[in-house]
Structure formats: C-alpha cells, structure tokens
C-alpha cells in the first residue's frame, strides 16, 4: 500500500476540505434528513453501526500498543507513578465539580416540579459498588476474556504491569520490545485513519437517525430537563477551557478546532471507547508526549466521566423534585461520594450511563419511573455526556504534560 494511501485524512487528496469539515457537512446533511423524513430515516442506522464497529475493532489493540509504546519511553518507573498521581487527582476534582454543577443547575431550573408520577418501574436494577469492589474489578482474572469483552480498566491495568516489566528488562530485549510496541501503535493509528475516511457517512447516518427518532422530544415535557443538562455541560466545557489556558498554556480555540473530528465522533457514537481511537490521533496533532497520553486517555475513558456525572446528578434531582423530596446537606455529600463511585464504574459504551443512573436513583429510594422516562431521550443526553467525558480527558492530559515539562522532559514520540 502506497504512502499516499496511508496518509492522514487531513492531508488527503482533497485540497478544499479537511476531514473535520467533511464530518461537519455529513452531520448537517444527516440532521436535515432526520428532520425531513423523521423515523423513516432509521433505514440508515446500519451505516452508522458499521462505523462504530470499525472504531471499536481498532480501539482495544490501539490502547494496548499505544500504552506500551508510551510507558516504555519513560526512563524510570518513578516517572510513571508521578503521572498516575497527577492525573487521578485531576480526574477526582473535576468529576466532583461536575456532580455539583449538575445538582446546582437542576436546583435552579427545577424541571421535576409538577411532573406527575404514574406507576413505578420494577426494581432490582443493581447495587452500588463499594470502593473495594471498584478496586477488585480493576484486576483481570483472564486477560483474554477482558480483551474480548472490552473491559478497558482491566486491560489498562494489565498493560501497565506489562510495560513496567518491560522497563525492568535488560537494555537489549527492552529496546527490541520498545520498537515492536511503537510499530504496533503506528499500525493501528493507520487503521484509524482509514476508518476515518468513511466518518462523514457513518456520523451523518447516526445524526440522521438521532434527529429522526428523538427530535420531537426536544419540544416535549422533558425540554427543560434536557436544556438544564446541556447548559451544565456547556458550563463544564467553559471550565475546561479556563483550566486549559491557565495550566496547559495553550489556546482553547485552537484546541477546539484541532479536535473537530473528535467532537463529531463523540456526538455521533456516544461511546468513549469508540472515540478513544480518534482521541489518540488528536493528542498526536497537539504534539502531546506519548508517554503521557497513552496512559491518561485510556484511564480517563474508564474513570473520568464528568459528562456522565452531570447527567447522574441531574436525573437524581429531577426524580427527587417529581417525588417532592428534598436533600439535606449531609445527603448532598453522600450523593457526591456515591456519584464518584458510580461514574467511575460506568462503561464507555453507548447507553452505559443510563443503567448507572437507575442504580443511582434506586440508592436513594426514589421511584425509577422518571429515570426510565429519561431513557426515552437518553441518546440526546449522552451526546453531550461523551463529548464532555473525552474533552476532560484531553484537557487533563495537556495539563499533566505541561506539568511534566516543568519537572523534566517527557519524550513525545518513539
């Protein structure tokens, strides 16, 4: 295959339109088709599903090889420990703030006031995980099963151990493995570039189906709730941009432009895992060190769910208002703690957050009916959830990379 065929989509044969512009056009055409044809446009859904499957197929091996390639560029294990400490502190702080933001917006708008409950949804949705359960679930019993089931957290933990073991090898075998990891990472990045050629069609089809299926709900009784969630998500994005400018010393406008195809992918696929492949590509364009982003982005795809946290807090308060329940300050603290655990345990797959929302509502002995009603428009909520989740991962990565530059150089490429 020629080098021209393997070139980045941004520098393809068309001098007029880059991949971000083509995706935007695809989204606009798809949204227009959804408005015109309504639910009939669902015949296009297989096109979007094929696109998601292609991204997912590349996601897991890309995570493994990128993480191994990045870790083996580090000069010592102590550097990895420092990276982990910084990014986990960032993720914990922003997720807590996102939960508070969701609660605050719903307290102001009060979309649940006046909503009439009919009959409850059957219970038995699930249980709140303890901190011990969350930690145990990070460790795989069978790495091949974890790979097959797409359990990103377990894959990341195993790959980190493999990377650390590589660093502890003698120089000659360590260098051979480092070259192999780098080659594997490059191979799967090329695969992602090929998949992105069809992104305008896949994303356009997904947008058409979303608008055709859910567009009418924008003007229904859930409009105030949906507007509140979107408003909180926009507020979180503004906070990211302030942090990005202040602590990463980079231009927010350039960042948003560089990530155009990523934001389109998160909106259309509503999957952090499927979007992870594109996030790696954006990190490369931002010239972030592989030794940083190869670790922080996969980890963030599992445990940093700021958009999901906003949704969890919003659904909980929406339900409490409909049930005429108020929370004490002590209960608010409990909400924040449980929300942190649940958001970290949610999957990076489409719709995974809705199950977590039902568990969250059930934990406070509230009726599940309202949360189930939100399920009818969940894809509209999840478009913003996923975008905020992935944006937070990239902002945190840029901040940590800037911090590491001050501590000492981190190799950018291998």
Q: How many DSSP helices?
A: 18
> Which band does the percent of strand residues land in?
under 5%
CATH superfamily: Sodium:dicarboxylate symporter
Uncertain spans: 1-15, 121-127
- CA-based gyration radius: 21 Å
Q: What is the terminal-to-terminal distance?
A: 23 Å
How many strands?
Answer: 0
CATH architecture: Orthogonal Bundle
Count of spatially separate domains: 1
Please identify the top-level CATH class: Mainly Alpha
Largest sheet: none
Order of helices and strands: HHHHHHHHHHHHHHHHHH
Overall outline: globular
**Global mean pLDDT:** 80
| CATH level 3 topology | Proton glutamate symport protein
Residue share in helix? over 70%
Give the structural class.
mainly alpha
